[in-house]
Amino acid sequence: MTRPDAAPPARPPVRPRIKGESLVWLTAMGLTIALGMVVLLLGVVASYGLGVFWPKHISEFTIVDGGKTVTVGGELVSRKAKAGNAAGVTSEEIQIYTGNKDAYGLPFRYVDVSAVQTSREPDDALVIERTTGGNAIGLPVALRPKGEAPLPASDPAFHARLDQLVIAAAANRAAVLAIRNGPLAVNAQRLSKLDARLKSMRKRADADAAQLAEVNAEIARLQAESTDLNSQAQAKAATMLGSQLVIRLFTGEEKRIQFKDVLGATWPNQLGLAGRCGVFVTRMARFVWDNPREANTEGGIFPAIFGTLVMTVLMSIVVTPFGVVAAIYLREYARQGLVVRTVRIAVNNLAGVPSIVFGVFGLGFFVYIVGGSVDRLFYDGNLTYGTGGILWAALTLALMTVPVVIVATEEAIAAVPRGAKEGSLACGASKWQTIQRVVLPASVPGILTGLILAMARGAGEVAPLMMVGVVKLAPSLPIDASWKVGDLIPGLHTDQKFMHLGFYIYDLGFQSPDSEAAKPMVFATTLFLIALVVALNLGAILLRDKLRRRLATATF
């Protein structure tokens, strides 16, 4: 029993309710949802993008088609529900990548699951990657090397001999490309330079006949040398002519494949985990370093990666000084009033202008006005800078992203302690010396923050680039060890059109003649675009953090 005079039991302390706590939790929930969506997006892109390079099993299906029993073979791509028929009965269908586009017309086939009688995975299924016509998929029959007796697939030496011929074809192809992309390309650039010089000389009334003859003789020599180099390339390419691989398609007919077109041969149903990882790495490396093929639905994306990188770096080089100078003037020199407030409002509004508007401006001002004037003044009217190029693309994107840099730089300058500026002025430093040695060093991390945001936006833009220089296919890079007419800097061809990963994705997704074949390339290219943007931003972030640590003092 409880004593009447006993004190009541102590109650636990009531936690005071903090005003606005529910909003804090609501904000945290929103942040969690946003991060989850980002992770989900990256996961989907990475899953589909990396899955392109993973070797899949080859299956052979026996199906009933129109009352006939036929055989279909290839990679099982997807399985999904099919729309219901008139009676409302739904069914399933499978999508099979059959390859052999030159034999079947289309590389994909859809089959009703109900029509499949049997399926198996033959151990000797062979996938041949080719330079044209897409992949060939079938069962090996024989090798027919040039000048040698046929070697049947049942021979124990078949696998080793096939690998030797594939390696020989790759070496031969590399030798041909070394000629065409090396001395032959250099001669073509020299011929372009001499041709422009010859046209310029002919326009002048006082042209020297001896100089004209000298230029014509040099052009004739280079043309003869180019013809000889082209003959050498054709002779090397012909060494693999006649060597063939004979396969039997799953539909029954035999097909002969020239080894000059073979990039690789894989036995996917015989590969273990280590072998699949090796094929995965090889395919990914080839995708990164090769040029596009087959209307961009096959091959690699190296020209697009390089073009995106060069354009973004040029844009960053241009936008940073203009943005910083404008911010310094607005914050430190301009008299604060209606005009400056109007300018700030205009700068902030520029960040919200649709990017296509900047593309139209870049086409009209940079390409037609500035580029046309440069051609008339320095290139005798020859079309050099009066057309789209990587320089005009970089300047257009710099104009589009300069408001971001201005705003970020102004905020960084405003964050510098007032006492540091006044102390510098009190010690006898001029205003410019104070800005140069006190304000700007302390503002560098903020300036780099603006640059990071500008790079992130500029690298992913597509609409303005479509008007000022980006193209569907440009295998030659805008920078190399050669010099040609129109180069402001030796080796940097700023007048040249270029490829861009963003436009490459757009072209694959909406302009490709084979949308099914382009889907894997869309995801893979998107993954590498994200990786490139992350790499550029990560480099800038690391530089910003390093400078922030170096500039950290007791004052700041």
Topology, element by element:
Blueprint: H1 21-51, E1 58-65, E2 68-82, E3 91-97, H2 101-104, E4 108-112, E5 116-120, E6 126-130, E7 136-144, E8 151-152, H3 158-181, H4 183-203, H5 209-238, E9 244-248, E10 254-258, E11 262-266, H6 273-289, E12 292-293, E13 298-299, H7 302-333, H8 338-350, H9 355-378, H10 390-414, H11 418-426, H12 431-460, H13 465-468, H14 501-510, H15 515-551
Antiparallel strand pairs: 1-2, 1-5, 2-3, 3-4, 6-7, 6-11, 7-8, 7-9, 9-10, 12-13
Verbal overview:
With 556 residues, this protein is α+β, with helices and mostly antiparallel strands. It is 56% helix and 13% strand. It has helices spanning 21-51, 101-104, 158-181, 183-203, 209-238, 273-289, 302-333, 338-350, 355-378, 390-414, 418-426, 431-460, 465-468, 501-510, 515-551; strands at 58-65, 68-82, 91-97, 108-112, 116-120, 126-130, 136-144, 151-152, 244-248, 254-258, 262-266, 292-293, 298-299. Strands 6, 7, 8, 9, 10 and 11 form a six-stranded antiparallel beta sheet that branches. A five-stranded antiparallel beta sheet has the order 4-3-2-1-5, with no helix packed on it. Strands 12-13 form a two-stranded antiparallel ribbon. The radius of gyration is 32 Å and the shape is flat. The mean pLDDT is 84.
Could you give the count of β-strands? 13
Shape category: flat
The averaged pLDDT comes out at 84
Helix % is 55-70%
Task: Write down the secondary-structure element order.
Answer: HEEEHEEEEEHHHEEEHEEHHHHHHHHH
Provide the CATH topology of one domain: MetI-like fold
First-last Cα distance: 69 Å
Which class of secondary structure composition applies to the elements? alpha+beta
CATH superfamily of one domain: MetI-like
- Which percent range describes the beta-strand content? 5-15%
Low-confidence stretches: none
Q: Count the helices. How many? A: 15
Cα-atom radius of gyration: 32 Å
